[in-house]
Amino acid sequence: MWEFRTRVLRPGERADRERELAWQLALLAADNVPLDDNVTAMLINRVIDNTGVAIAALARRPVVNAAAQAARRPATPGASVFGAPTLRSAPEWAAWANGVAVRELDFHDTFLAAEYAHPADNIPPLLAVAQHCGRSGLDVLRALATAYEVHVDLAKGISLHEHGIDHITHLAASVAAGLGTLLALPPDVTYQGIQQAVHTTTTTRQSRKGTISSWKAYAPAFAGMMGILAVDRAMRGETAPSPIYEGTGGVIATLLGGPEAEYVVPLPSPGEPKRAILETYTKEYSAEYHAQAWIDLARRLRDRIPDQSAIRRVVIKTSSHTHRVIGTGSGDPEKYDPDASRETLDHSLMYIFAVALQDGTWHHERSYAPERAHRADTIQLWRSIQTVEDPVWTARYHDTDPAKRAFGGDVLIELADGTTIHDSIDVADAHPRGARPFDRARYIEKFRTLATPFVSDADQETFLRAAENLAELPAGRLAELFPTVTNVPAVPPVSGGIL
User: CA–CA separation, 360 vs 378, rounded Å?
Assistant: First the structure.
């Protein structure tokens, strides 16, 4: 790896592509290095993971509406849409529908560093374009390795949320870079596509503040769609605002750290394999990643508190990121509101810890049900919980050594008789360093659990054979990655749209 330093152009300084981040990302996309076996294996795991969580979300309104929009854009050859085996949509619209399905339950992979990321959001747009353009499974894997590398490296080097920008900006860049690899584009073309994608996806972080809406699921799908459209324009010879990061009116100068800021983005050296996916991790629970370890800890603590009505106060000491994103440091009163949206509840550590402590489990539907959120004993416990920032845990969150990085904290539970219970956790059980790390068998178990109500055993096996042999899957057979779905409750799209 090497460190690429990017900064705003000085007055009168001419742009130089070699000193531009977008150009370096384009060169990375064009570097057709071999895939490590462990990288291939993990990419396959994430394809399996995405498919399970998408299938489980097919009856939810945002997914139904996105699929309805995609259905209005048939294309030949087109790309598959989850839950619609005969439909082939324009690739940008298939990416839109599938991206919403994958993201709706907040149940797939994550990477946390200077910025937050869900790198598996790259899979729907890259898979859609691959299917439409007749690329093979191996082409998909190579493109995904690029996209994961770009997404993770940008998340390590550039914080967007610090300046109120949503994290989908990095996703748009990684999608465009992945498309450069998928389609074997010259760096000049990928460079323009990356810049257009970044320019059109610098949105505000209000999407994850206050009353969090269904746009949280649509946001990465939007970035994927914009990435596809940007690269399509670039392939037709269109250019982009340039340099998008370093220009005096660019992202760094006007939206991030300002004219004097400098960012350091780690990148693979030429010829070095793209291994960034190995630093990412999936979710065992359908909740924001910062809450994963706390669900595990709450489950363990449950047996130590036989009378939970005796809990007087719960104080969670954790990192600045956890405190400010899903804790009381967010300043969002909605995080204590029983009438809050599902999206808001899955960004409330106080709610999640309360329910996990009471139930000893977590479920992607039951744990968010309105009747669950309105239980009087839950509300009482929920509102007794607060988070505080702990510099020790903030430092561990940002540790540059993945073997030391932690996303947990300490908890103090005070009972009515004055008794206190202390405990702590470093990482979620499903984390690579956790008590029960996810391996291929657990990814498949998660897929089967989510898919079984809707996909027959035979169709599950067909999908798993295709996914596990993705490197050998020829062009024309990518549709096998979309299992036939039955028994999904009929939820019509909301009428009244324009399109």
Answer: 13
What pLDDT sits at residue 499?
A: 77
- Amino acid at site 443: Y
What is the model's pLDDT at position 491? 64
Instruction: Tell me how crowded residue 304 is: count the other CB atoms within 10 A of its CB.
Output: 9
The residues, ordered by sequence, that sit 6+ positions from 426 with a Cβ below 8 Å of its Cβ are: 293, 396, 406, 407, 408, 433
Q: Tokens at residue 48, please?
A: 């399996």
Q: State both tokens at 320.
A: 């600045």
Helix (H), strand (E) at residue 293: helix 292-301
Instruction: Give the separation between CA 19 and CA 203, rounded to whole angstroms.
Output: 25
Give the tokens for residue 57. 């979300």
The DSSP annotation for 33-59 comes to PPPPHHHHHHHHHHHHHHHHHHHHTTT
Structure tokens at 310: 């005796």
Tell me the residue type at 42.
M
Write the pLDDT tens digit of every residue in 84-102: 989 999 999 999 999 999 9
Secondary structure tally for the chain: helices H, strands E = 19, 10
Q: Which of 120, 88, 133 is nearest to 228 (CA)?
A: 133
User: Any bridge partners for residue 81, and if so which?
Assistant: 84
Hey, which bits of 10-126 come out as E strands? Answer: 74-81, 84-89, 111-112, 116-117
Q: Is 386 helix (H, G, I), strand (E, B) or coil?
A: strand
Contacts of 133 (CB under 8 A, 6+ apart): 91, 182, 183
Mean model confidence pLDDT for the chain: 96
Mean per-residue pLDDT for 376-383? 98
* All domains of the chain in start order, with CATH: 2-279 (1.10.4100.10), 289-425 (3.30.1330.120)
